[in-house]
Amino acid sequence: MFDVGRVLIQWDLRHLFAKLIGDPQEVEWFVTNVVTEKWHHQHDEGRALADMMPERIAQFPDYAAHIRAYASRFNETIPGPVPGSHEIVRQLAAQGVPLFGLTNFGEEFWAGFRPTEPLFDLFKDIVVSGTEKCAKPGPRIYEIAEARFGIAPQHLLFIDDKAENIAAARARGWHGHVFEDAARLEQCLEGHGLLG
């Protein structure tokens, strides 16, 4: 079971906003204070962009166009695949290993991104936090994944880049791997007898 952002795809708000803001220091200020990962997480938790955007524009009216670009050009925050990860997914699929996803991803953004990435055609199912209106590391989304996938916890191996999300999975009896890079993931999968 794979997380998506920073495991299978790169994600960086700067990748979009560096195109819109010429000064690198201002870009850093913007992603630290205006369109931040913490604020973005509200959409991961199921909050609609229609509710989030007017609030933020009211707070930072000088950046209204940039905040609107966050909604309309979200796919530009995704530079491309994480090196090596897609190859591993394809190897697992070729060996008949059932693949699932569990991702913190806003429902509206997922609807715009998912059709651009054929890799996910290899997955049996993907639980998306924005659709479920609950996010990792909260226990509810793990419960939903278990129920949807129909696999006993001890047979699940979850790969995520955040240690707290893996800790929550292990607390439920899942196996877990904190993703750092494809080489270490490959070693983990070989150790579990899933690649080789």
From TrEMBL:
Domain of life: Bacteria
CDD domains, per the entry: HAD_sEH-N_like
InterPro entries, per the entry: HAD-like_sf (IPR036412), HAD-SF_hydro_IA (IPR006439), HAD_sf (IPR023214), PGP-like_dom2 (IPR023198)
Name of protein: Hydrolase
